[in-house]
Amino acid sequence: MLRLDGVGLRYGSGPEILRDITFAMRSGDFYFLTGPSGAGKSSLLRLLFLALKPTRGTVNIFGEDVGHLTRNRLALIRRRIGVVFQEFRLLDHLTTFDNVALPLRVAGKSESSYRRDVLDLLDWVGLADQARAFPPILSGGEKQRAAIARAVIAKPELLLADEPTGNVDPILAKRLLHLFVELNRLGTTMLIATHDQGLVRQADRPILHLESGVLTQQ
Amino acid sequence: MKPGAIIPSNVASLRSLTVTMAVMSYLACLAIGALILVDRAVDAWTDGLSREMTVQVRQVRTADITGEVEKARRILEDYPGVVEVQVLSDSESAKLLEPWLGVRALEGLPVPRLIRVVTNKGKNFDDDALADRLSVVQGVYLDTHQKWEVELTRMGRALSVLSSLILVLISLSAVAIVIFATRAVLQANKPVVDLLHLVGAYDRYIARQIDGRFVRTGLVAGFMGVAMGLLTFLGLSLTGVGGGGGFASASGTLLFAPPAIAVWSYAALFSVPVAATVICLVTSRLTLLRLLGSVL
Asked: How many CB atoms lie within 10 A of CB B12?
């Protein structure tokens, strides 16, 4: 499913943010990625959701070396990955419904084919009455839930989440964890970067710890 | 529920592009109008000149000029392809010189006699053979106006090339402006474009979301330019601005010519919005694909 071999990353001519990262995830794995702020968690996730190329080493996802993919192939790989961004990245000019439906729309599906699924998912994350609302009027927690809904709507094979419970209350955090566990049970491979030790303890899943750019498994 | 536009519709750089492209289209309209007017004027002038010629008969000491003129007239009337022969009287010939020499200076001067000849401009009309036949007339000179025709044609061709060059320059400027605007639109929508990439959009899908705006901009700006161009020609034809009735009437014929001719003028003028749309579509699409291809 996912394999990194001797991956290093630096921005421009700055110091190396990630050093000799080597790890693999099999289909159906569920890992937490922990580490102090600035350790490189977000950079590692950016490598995995193909927003960056490593400065050295290889990243292999779904059996393909991402360094040698055509642009169209890269797009198809990205459709198999769901991403929850730390800063949500919702589009302010689209309604919550359209934001959540974006991956399906980009994949060429018609509105009538995904309408029910999107409304059901919005209902599940507690945003049914905000379907027509625009992100600027949503609270931080609502934006977080909309971002999670967008990441999972296309039933991705791999879900990468950067602090997915950072802006929600403990009750909703528990519900979201339940959603992640349920998705994982249905076959989605999960990697969740978080500071939330409570969440990590509740889930009782293996942990990848990143510190000063070096990854260790706990 | 109709999905909202993925790229925000309120893009300031496209408003500036509309204004600039409208001005470009207007200038293109003027250049095309000038091209048509020059082409028609040169056609009309050269047509008149090539159908007409003048025979001069100068007084030769021993010859009877009236008899020589008569001899020339008979040769001309018998010559195949000549449809009209008009012998100008002494006074008519002298009148042509009056503006330059005055009435008094002409008294006693041996003013050549002129014969105006109109031909059918057939392909087989042989000027040299006619000159050869007229050579039996003493003091004769056949002026075919060929020199003027060549000069006018050369001037017309130069003006046509100039207008075409202006059209090319306008098109190149339009391409450069569209490239600039495309970059601006892409930059303004970078977060949206980045997100679309990350959720798996193909470059051509993203390009389609954006270049539709450029197509509309090109079409609207093109029609604005043509409308302004037509109003300008209408204004010129009504007011006679630009140096007199000739230019005004020429502008008028551009708009109000008989349908068989006008259809070509209008087709040429309305090719401007089509060209503006094509320039916007092709340039923005190629620029977008190039720029999108340069990001991961």
From this structure: 10
